[in-house]
Amino acid sequence: MSDLQNLFVTCAPGVEPFLDAEMEGMRLRKRERQVGGVSFEGGWAEIWRANLGLRTAIRVLSRVSRFIARDSDELYRHVMSVDWSQYLGPEATIAVRAHSRDSALDHTLFVEQRVKDAICDQERAKTGERPSVDKSSPTLRIHAHIFRDRVTLSIDTSGDSLHRRGYREIQGRAPLSESLAAALIMSTGWDQRQPFLDPFCGSGTFLVEAAWMAMDRAPGLGRSFAFEKWPGHDERGLEIFRQKLNDRVKPLGKRVIWGGDVDRQTVEAARHNIERAGLSESVQVEACDARSFSPRHGWNAQVIANPPYGERVGEERKLGEVYEGFGAALMEHAEGFKVSLLSGNPSLTRRLQLPNPTKWMDIMNGNLACRLLSWEL
Ligand SMILES: C[S@@+](CC[C@H](N)C(=O)[O-])C[C@H]1O[C@@H](n2cnc3c(N)ncnc32)[C@H](O)[C@@H]1O
């Protein structure tokens, strides 16, 4: 792989400004914000920094080639002109994912097949062996993005999506992606010293993300990445870099990070995840109904939560009472607090009976259009 590469970090729609701000903080160069991510330029050092350090990112892609292709022979020829051996070790497995818009090559399954054939043919000619296909966890994932016949071929340096930090072994009922949770926390402007409270904590995602931010603990420290399996990977260099990130981690000290959930089993799951994140001494979770939320007066805390939206019939009626009770608890006990709630069901949100929010932000939570509503009570 050459020294300077065109890189693209992907993120969930709506998260681009937070990703860009994180990248600016890391001094990643020549950034350009686009729909679905931010492009930048860099070499191996930047690929490591982005993969291990970005909280709101999903993947770091490296562009290997860009060309025009209007038919499958042209596509095959261009894919063949890339030297794939630099990414394929002896045990390599591959997977290709294609997207196409407004292009002659519009059959994405066919595009995936042709790209795969070209790579496998090249490898067989060089080594006598074809890499095998592994769609779930290949050592090399290739993205072919076609727009108006212009093909961009990229390789995924991350492997598993970056939201998988490794701590969330037990999922709650409707867990939030770790990367989205990090972006939502950033959007609140939490100063990392105020008490941080999530009264609907589920599997504990907001709590762990907030704690790691305050500790300056890099999100990718406990996981591996696709690039580690590529030939020529500098194992020792990466180890030293991980150690540097580890040395930066600060203790949480006296900060309060607290979560509650009405379901005892969920609280146990959150405790398990929090322990895996190395936080069992510093983050508290309890079984607690949000209707009885009564934080300490004058705490000046940041509250953030993703209350249930009630997707099944009958559930919504019961939840209406939970929202009413929680809204009343906030009005009684949270004066002076900052409160941000992820709303996926406007009629339930109205049941909170809170004043008009001071700000809001539209965001996609998976396939569900949501709004993060914020109040200064
Ligand atoms: C959408 S989930 C939260 C997911 C969480 N943000 C995560 O990432 O795992 C909503 C949570 O609210 C909890 N819940 C439902 N009713 C509650 C109540 N009255 N008080 C507190 N928690 C409640 C559910 O048990 C569930 O874990």
Textual characterization of the structure:
This protein has an 8-stranded mixed beta sheet with strand order 2-3-1-4-8-7-5-6. A 7-stranded mixed beta sheet has the order 11-10-9-12-13-15-14. The chain has 377 residues and is an alpha/beta fold. 32% of the residues lie in helices and 25% in strands. It is elongated, with a radius of gyration of 23 Å. It has helices spanning 16-25, 44-53, 72-80, 108-127, 178-188, 205-215, 235-248, 264-276, 315-333, 346-350, and strands at residues 5-10, 29-34, 37-42, 59-68, 93-101, 132-133, 140-147, 150-156, 196-198, 257-261, 283-287, 302-305, 338-343, 359-365, 368-376. α3 (72-80) packs parallel to α4 (108-127) and α5 crosses α6 (205-215). The termini are far apart. The chain has 2 domains: 5-156, VC0802-like (2-Layer Sandwich), CATH 3.30.2130.30; 178-215 and 250-376, Rossmann fold. S-adenosylmethionine binds next to α6 and β10. S-adenosylmethionine binds at residues 172-176, 199-200, 202-203, 205-206, 260-263, 266, 289-291, 306-308, 322.
Rg, Å, rounded: 23 Å
Number of helices: 10
List unreliable stretches of 5+ residues: none
Relative strand content: 15-25%
Quickly describe the structure.
This protein is α/β, with parallel strands linked by helices. The chain contains 10 helices and 15 strands.
Structural key phrases:
alpha/beta, Rossmann fold, elongated, 10 helices, VC0802-like, binds S-adenosylmethionine, 377 residues, eight-stranded mixed sheet, seven-stranded mixed sheet
List the helices and strands and how they pair.
Layout: E1 5-10, H1 16-25, E2 29-34, E3 37-42, H2 44-53, E4 59-68, H3 72-80, E5 93-101, H4 108-127, E6 132-133, E7 140-147, E8 150-156, H5 178-188, E9 196-198, H6 205-215, H7 235-248, E10 257-261, H8 264-276, E11 283-287, E12 302-305, H9 315-333, E13 338-343, H10 346-350, E14 359-365, E15 368-376
Parallel strand pairs: 5-6, 5-7, 9-10, 9-12, 10-11, 12-13
Antiparallel strand pairs: 1-3, 1-4, 2-3, 4-8, 7-8, 13-15, 14-15
Helix pairs in contact: 3-4, 5-6
Bound molecules: S-adenosylmethionine (SAM).
S-adenosylmethionine (SAM) binds at residues 172-176, 199-200, 202-203, 205-206, 260-263, 266, 289-291, 306-308, 322.
